[in-house]
Known about the structure:
By secondary structure, the protein is an alpha+beta fold.
Amino acid sequence: MVKFRFMMGVVPGFNHGNRGMTPEKAIKTSSQKLLIAMFDWENLNGDKPNEVFDYEIIPAKAIYPDTEDLGCPYAGEIGVLVEGECKDSDLPSLESRVKYLARALSQETITIEVTKDGDFAEIIHVCDTGNEVKHYDYNIEQFTASLNVPDETDFCRFLQEYYKNNSLPFEKYVITGIVSIRDGHIEFAAVQNPAWGQEDIDQYRADMLEIMYTLAVHYNTTIKLVLKDEELEIDPSSPEAKEKLNALADARLRKFGVKPPKKDKGSWDSSDSDNNWKKWNPSR
C-alpha cells in the first residue's frame, strides 16, 4: 500500500480572494466531487471494481506568494487536504481521478505527494487543469512542521508577510505550503516541487529551515519538524536559535549576490487591524 495526499482548491483560478468561500462550503463542494471520483468512477469509466481508495477530507489553506500572477487570498486560499491510501498498482487510476477533480473544480494545478513505507516515493504534478501530468521521483525534500500557535489566521498572515518582505524577486525557493489544524496544533507541510523550478534540494532545505527558525523565534514556540530523512526539534530558547536563523538568511542572500537588507525596526503586532500590519523581518 502507498499513502497519498493532495491539497485541492475549490474556487477557480487565481486572484479570487476566496469569493466568500468558507471551510464548511469547501468541504461540501469537494465532498461531492470526491464521491464521484473515488466511488462512482467504475460506473463512469469501467475501471476495475477492486480498486479501493480510502481517504479523509481535512479543512486546509494553501499559502503562497501574493504576487500579481498568483494572488494568494489574504490569510490563505481556502480548500481541502485529501489524505488516503491505495495499492501501488492503483496509482495510475488515482492520477486519472485527480485529473478529473482538477477539471471538475477548474483547478490549474494539484500536486499529489506519494509515500511508501514511510519514505518519499514521488510527486505527481497535475497541471493545465488536468490536461498535463509531470512525475518527479528523484531526491526531493518534504517536511511537516507541528507547532502550538493559538490563531491560525494570524499564522497564515504572518507567513504571507514574511514572503513579501524577505523573498527576493527572482527567487524560486519560496516555501509554499499547506496549513491545517491537527489535535489543536497547527500543521504546516510542503514538498519541494521541481515544476516550480525548485530543483536544488539543498537550497530548498536551507530556505525551509530559515522559515522554521523564524516561526519558532517569532511565536516563541518549539517546532517539531519531520523531514524526508530526519526529525528535528527547534527550540527558540536555545542560544543557537537566532544565530542559526541569521546565518541561514545571510547565506541565502550571499548566494543570490545581493547585500543583506538594513535592519528593520518594525515589528509584527497581531493585534493590529487587517489594514495596519507592521513590516517584520528576522533580526539581523
